[in-house]
Amino acid sequence: MKKIVLSILLVFLMLMVHSESLADTSTLKSINAEIEEKFGYPNYFKPSISGIGDFNYDVLSHYRVPVYGEPHGGQKDVAGKMEPRFLGYNEFGESVPNPEYPFDSSIRTL
63 and 87 in contact (C-beta within 8 Å)? Predict the structure, then answer.
């Protein structure tokens, strides 16, 4: 009985992983289709870029910002949530700032 339950669980987990990768692939295809339609650049975003990293679907779903690689550059507490300074890298290898990260200084008025 344990073998049957474990087999069913294993098949279920494999289907979940496969469906997530299909969702990621279709997300990238739809983004690229829109960029090609509006701006004429086919396959603008690649699944990964050598020396930079893989397209980060988690950052895209949470922040709505397309990046490669992982968040980096330290973190600060913003309203009870730790926010990274940079969300990842753009296609040129430059750090992409987090719009939720607080400014380093503020302007005070008199």
Answer: yes
